Amino acid sequence: xxxxxxxxxxxxxxxxxxxxxxxxxxxxxxxxxxxDLHDPRQLPGPExxxxxxxxxxxxxxxxxxxVNYAPxxxxxxxxxxxxxxxxxxxxxxxxxxxxxxxxxxxxxxxxQLDKNTIVVIWGDHGFHLGDLGIWTKHTNYEQxxxxxxxxxxxxxxxxxxxxxxxxxxxxIYPTLAELAGLxxxxxxxxxxxxxxxxxxxxxxxxxxxxxxHVFPKSVLxxxxxxxxxxxxxxxxxxxxxxxxxxxxxxxxxxSVETRNLASEQPELVEQLRQRLRAYPVLRRP
Length: 285
Description:
By secondary structure, the protein is of the alpha+beta class. 26% of the residues lie in helices and 13% in strands. It contains 7 helices and 8 strands, in the order H-H-H-E-E-E-H-E-H-H-E-E-E-E-H.
């Protein structure tokens, strides 16, 4: 940032800096003082440790990358004490990276760049901490797909404001282009993202009514998340829609997936399927 500021002062060249932090990815390794910030006995545990009722076998997960780290057993059966240690480690790692982000922002302010620099804090995926009996990511459920996204744009955003606007990672590109005063990107393959600038100006505005995400397992899992519902479609590429298996969850009744409602609400499933059909299914080359 110091070098970027010098270039800007000398030649007027704007800067774009990406600072990446590996934590809180595994392993949960952070200095002791960040562990000491949290009492493991006071940290929240998983709300529900059972798979969602009626969930298809392809959707659920056991084990995964976490079993590569001792003392997690290969069986991935994690007792209450080990759960507490793992959750403690995640919180410690998150506090550690929070402090590193703080160092960057403090330097931005010290250099007097904070009044005319756009700042985006973004995470690439969520993290299961024992909810539904699942650890880490690699699912189409809420905890793996809900990510942090915070944007500060001087003259546009207001401090301490939040929105319930759904967003996708692909929205960051057109948002930054508009905030920087650049023309809307014109790319040959088309642009899926939507600029979030109207929402940054007014948190009550809406630019999309759902978010789309995909995770492939033995079959392809594609999902639509509205403010209230998530529909997940599991289907092999090339198979007809009649071969698909669906999950439907209502987050107005629970913050985690408890029961697959797809068979009980076919009209809602069809309504959400219509939105899902707008997205192409990529075929293997």
